[in-house]
Amino acid sequence: MKVPFIDLKRAHAPLKSELLDAFERTIDHGGYCLGPDVAAFEEAFARTQGVSRCVGVGSGTEALHLVATAMGLGPGDEVIVPAFSFVATAWFAQYVGARLVFADIDPVSYTLDPVGIEALITDKTKAIVVTHLYGQAANMDPIVKLARSNGIAVVEDAAQAHLAMYRGDPVGEIGDAGVFSFYPTKNLGGLGEGGCVVSPNSEMLDQIEILRAHGSKERYLNHFVGYNNRMEGLQAAALNVKLPHLAEKTRRRQAIASAYLSGIRQPEIQLPQILDWGESVYHMFIIQHSERDRLKTYLAEKGIGSDIVYPYPLHLQPCFAFLGYKEGDFPHSESLARRCLSLPIIPELTDDEVEYVIETLNTYQ
Ligand SMILES: *Cc1c(COP(=O)(O)O)cnc(C)c1O
What we know:
Layout: H1 8-12, H2 16-29, H3 36-49, E1 54-57, H4 60-70, E2 78-82, H5 88-94, E3 99-103, E4 125-131, H6 140-149, E5 153-157, E6 165-166, E7 169-170, E8 177-181, E9 195-198, H7 202-211, E10 216-218, E11 221-222, H8 233-242, H9 246-263, E12 285-288, H10 292-301, H11 331-339, E13 340-343, H12 351-362
Parallel strand pairs: 2-3, 2-4, 4-5, 5-8
Antiparallel strand pairs: 1-9, 6-7, 8-9, 10-11, 12-13
Helix pairs in contact: 2-8, 3-8, 4-5, 4-7, 9-12
């Protein structure tokens, strides 16, 4: 048996004719950059995610960039960022020339640890970025409380966390702004790049709408230095076909996770925990093992795809060497990078495939 880690063809095969019909409508109406499909998607995604409004942009990375720009961050400002995340979380600060201040994750949720942030806050700290990593909401209450009492913004990187909840509230709008990615492998993905910004602050979203289209409110009159970061009509058309399936696909990810959690009996494997502030939407199902690379090879020999997400913590990335961090600075991030392994959890897996993954892990020695 071959169990894919990612299989976009399998995900899209049942939707192919619907996708082609949607693309045909877009081709005919001509709204290729923004346009009616994007407007419809912004409305529908906001409703599905349970937030007030959504602004579609070119990617999750650019969504982060535009939020940092709209917040007016720049040289002289400091931004606290988890040392374990996808690199784009750190681009939030780097693209606008603000100083990155890394902080460790907590070893249970794998998200930014509120303990320890306080010591990093200076009078230059302007924002704290949390990542709802692997689909697990970060521990928002203590982080938001600390930020509010210090006049600091909280930005939610929800690129992996569509439909995730924190104590009953949908992620994205708990802080001052949130971003989602619609990269093809995300829990909701287009057939190319895409992203969006959400925020309880409508003025900020108005500003992002201007920034994503060259800083222009009125055609050819440019009030601000802007960017070309519009969501594309064809991507929105694909997302409009896929969005109605998101809730069901998320439940399927959670069902596969439950099967793994109850089925995997291997004392050497550390399984993820279900946290009282909200169940993960399992963008990734992460196990930890002291001989992670050997386990990965074994799974590959048995036809099971897996991935290391991520092998390097951000503070040890060559691109951030100029910040002067060193090994040992963030032990939880470093340990996770050494030990983590991502099991297949795409919603299109069959029950037999899930069972095969469990049996294969249980017979590992
Ligand atoms: C994917 C991802 C991004 C970037 O989104 P893109 O749409 O690929 O630019 C940012 N942060 C996290 C945590 C991600 O997983």
